[in-house]
Amino acid sequence: MVLKGQSAKPEASAAPSVQRRVERFADGRIEPVVDWIASEVPVALHYNGRPHAVMLATPADLDDFALGFSLSEAIIAAPAELESVETKVRLEGIELDLRIPPPRAEAVAARQRNLTAGSSCGLCGTQQLEDVVRHPPAVGPGLRIDVETLHIALSALHAAQPLNSQTGATHAAAWANGGGELLFVREDVGRHNALDKLIGALARAGADLGQGFLILTSRASYEMVQKAATVGIALVVAISAPTALAIHLADSTAVTLVGFARDATHVVYTHAHRLVMSRE
């Protein structure tokens, strides 16, 4: 299943998965097999020639990642401010050279994040408390959906994750419309990276973020809600639990936060008015 803006082929720089010989134990027997393994490589982001952060990520959809990270971290305020992205493959990993307006680059330098961040880390390397607890403005009215629409989108999500189906090792961030149709899905070994890739894909497509909702195949931690609120996403659905700080941020930014969304169940933590029981 290939969705809008989703490539069925790996980027030339590196493959999102690789094959390795392994020994599989099952039913009391050991069998040598060839297995697919998700790739995880260092991806360095440089802004106007200055190193900013190194993320461990799946080497796919890196243009989306560069744009989404820049937007969700409030490094730029609009997609047009990312003037160019140059991808350089190094022996140690991949380097993304991003060009942004000089005033934006100076602001980035003032809150430098130049430590390596793991694939599960959204705040690693942040040096100032004010950069960690960043409160975006309240989101707009957003979309109201019914419970059936939410679970239509959830039921379609498994088939829309080819890399996870192949490797069992990646998260996904998905964007669904008001009918529950999945329009965009991005995958990565890191949940934050998957969300940034999705945000970048949505920005590149000029999507109206008031006319859809976000689904995460992970817990809803503070930084995931922060990224969503920063770009104006009003409805966030996660298949696992939120944290207390995530709930606090969702409440203060008018985001509807849904957790434990699986099969026919879910829990609404904030601003429940966007989720109704039946189609109106």
CATH class of the largest domain: Alpha Beta
* Cα end-to-end separation: 31 Å
Mean pLDDT: 90
How much of the sequence lies in strands comes to: 25-35%
The gross shape turns out to be: globular
Word description of this protein:
The chain is of the alpha/beta class and 280 residues long. It folds into 2 domains: 41-132, Ubiquitin-like (UB roll) (Roll), CATH 3.10.20; 145-276, Cytidine Deaminase, domain 2 (3-Layer(aba) Sandwich), CATH 3.40.140.10. The chain has helices spanning 62-72, 102-110, 129-132, 147-157, 162-167, 191-205, 222-231, 244-252, and strands at 17-26, 29-38, 41-47, 50-57, 84-89, 94-99, 116-117, 145-146, 171-177, 182-188, 212-216, 235-238, 256-262, 265-270, 275-276. The strands form 4 sheets. Strands 10-9-11-12-13-14 form a 6-stranded mixed β-sheet. Strands 5-6-3-4-7 form a 5-stranded mixed β-sheet. The longest helix is centred in the last third of the chain and has 15 residues, at 191-205. It is globular and about 55 Å long. Mean pLDDT is 90; it is low at 5-13.
Give short descriptive properties of this protein.
280 residues, alpha/beta, Ubiquitin-like (UB roll), Cytidine Deaminase, domain 2, five-stranded mixed β-sheet, 8 helices, 15 strands
Q: Secondary-structure blueprint of this entry?
A:
Layout: E1 17-26, E2 29-38, E3 41-47, E4 50-57, H1 62-72, E5 84-89, E6 94-99, H2 102-110, E7 116-117, H3 129-132, E8 145-146, H4 147-157, H5 162-167, E9 171-177, E10 182-188, H6 191-205, E11 212-216, H7 222-231, E12 235-238, H8 244-252, E13 256-262, E14 265-270, E15 275-276
